[in-house]
Design a protein that fits this description.
With about 350 residues, the protein is an alpha+beta fold. The chain has one domain: Beta-lactamase (3-Layer(aba) Sandwich). It is about 35% helix and about 20% strand. The strands form 5 sheets. Strands 2-1-15-14-13-12 form a 6-stranded antiparallel sheet, with helices on both faces. It has a 3-stranded antiparallel sheet with strand order 5-9-6. A two-stranded antiparallel ribbon has the order 3-4. Helix 2 packs parallel to helix 5, helix 4 runs antiparallel to helix 5 and helix 6 packs across helix 7. The longest helix is centred in the first third of the chain and has 34 residues. It comes from Chryseobacterium paridis. This is Beta-lactamase family protein. It holds the Pfam family Beta-lactamase.
Length: about 350
């Protein structure tokens, strides 16, 4: 009897140390990936988090949140997330569809009467980057409005009369103008501002208390400051008006809040299962060719396992998130210098996290 107890005790002890060994091994391997790029402790850096089934597997910050004040980054810092904003815009549209206030197959002329070719371009085309509308970020005249306060209608007027790049549904071509149009539609249909709609219907419901519509004027607790890198060193980020990227790239958040966002989607707190499915399915072009984008997410894979991904880039900041539904693994990375991209690092960390699930 005593020998059985001893065997059981030794087995449990072995499992404990084995688990601890793999956890430490995972941490070292993730550290190694990150430090290849984020290797200046006196410069701006990044925050990285890995969770599985709600359990934190890894969470660290590297570098400085503010160079002038010599303040270190920590996992609670607030970053501008750039185009990861598109996830929130897409879900807001689906929330309005769920409420019966619009349909993703509606032509945009139903809401904006004078939009060129608006009877051929649908909300679906905007959501999937298949509208053919000119991307305003590729227009040379963008510099003339970059620091102006632009109402959504003014932003739409800025690009709406540009020649289209292709007929709606002919191609997938990543497009910021489409998501600005979606933000304008959210305002027209809801009767509220985009900022208020996102806060009241998404941030508040998901418990995202450290997420905001971006601002350089308001006091944002634990804000990470953004930087560029020049030959002679780091400089403060270029100032822009956040009314320009608007609903295509003007939100701020934390790693913890982004996990709350992911959990809210998983638990159908924001959308029912039918509407949620629309965000995460692949669609086809007019010729029947399937492309790898849903509504606000790239739909890819890592070693044959399906992922939902999106990155973001805005002056002074870069971001990347990868979610693996089958394993409930979420990997998120933020940088407060646009000289550092977390994109490949996050995908490689996700690969390590998948390997870790096979060992445990």
């Amino acid at each position: 009897m005593n020998s059985n107890r001893t065997f059981l005790w030794l087995t449990l002890l072995l499992l404990f140390f084995s688990s601890m060994f793999f956890a430490q091994g995972l941490e070292r391997r993730i550290d190694s990936l990150i430090l290849k790029e984020f290797n200046d402790p006196k410069g701006p850096g990044g925050v990285f988090t890995v969770t599985q089934k709600g359990k934190t597997l890894y969470q660290k910050a590297f570098g400085k949140a503010n160079l002038e004040l010599d303040v270190n980054l920590n996992p609670e810092n607030v970053f501008q997330i750039g185009s990861m904003t598109k996830q929130f815009t897409a879900v807001a549209i689906l929330m309005l569809e769920q409420q019966g206030k619009l349909n993703v197959n509606d032509p945009i002329s139903k809401y904006i009467k004078d939009y060129p070719n608006g009877d051929k371009i649908t909300i679906h085309h905007l959501l999937t980057h298949t509208s053919g509308i000119k991307d305003f970020t590729k227009m040379k005249s963008i510099s003339t409005i970059a620091q102006k306060d632009m109402k959504p209608e003014m932003m739409v007027d800025f690009f709406k009369n540009e020649p289209v790049d292709f007929a709606p549904g002919e191609k997938f071509d990543y497009n910021n103008s489409g998501y600005v149009l979606l933000g304008y539609l959210i305002e027209l249909v809801s009767g509220d501002t985009y900022e208020n709609f996102i806060k009241n219907n998404i941030f508040d419901k998901a418990g995202m208390i450290h997420s905001y519509y971006a601002t350089d004027r308001k006091i944002i607790p634990k804000r990470a400051y953004g930087y560029h890198k020049k030959e002679y060193g780091y400089v403060n980020k270029t100032a822009i008006s956040f009314s320009v990227p608007f609903s295509s790239g003007s939100l701020m958040s934390t790693a913890e809040d982004m996990l709350k966002w992911q959990n809210a989607l998983n638990k159908n707190i924001l959308l029912n299962s039918q509407e949620t499915k629309k965000a995460f399915q692949k669609y086809k072009l007019n010729n029947g060719e399937e492309f790898t984008y849903g509504y606000g997410w790239h739909l890819k894979d890592i070693n044959g396992i399906s992922t939902r991904e999106h990155g973001g880039s805005i002056f002074g900041f870069k971001s990347m998130g990868v979610y693996i539904p089958s394993k409930d693994i979420y990997v998120i990375g933020f940088s407060n210098c646009d000289c550092h991209s977390p994109t490949e690092i996050i995908r490689n960390i996700a690969k390590l996290a998948l390997e870790n699930t096979k060992r445990n």
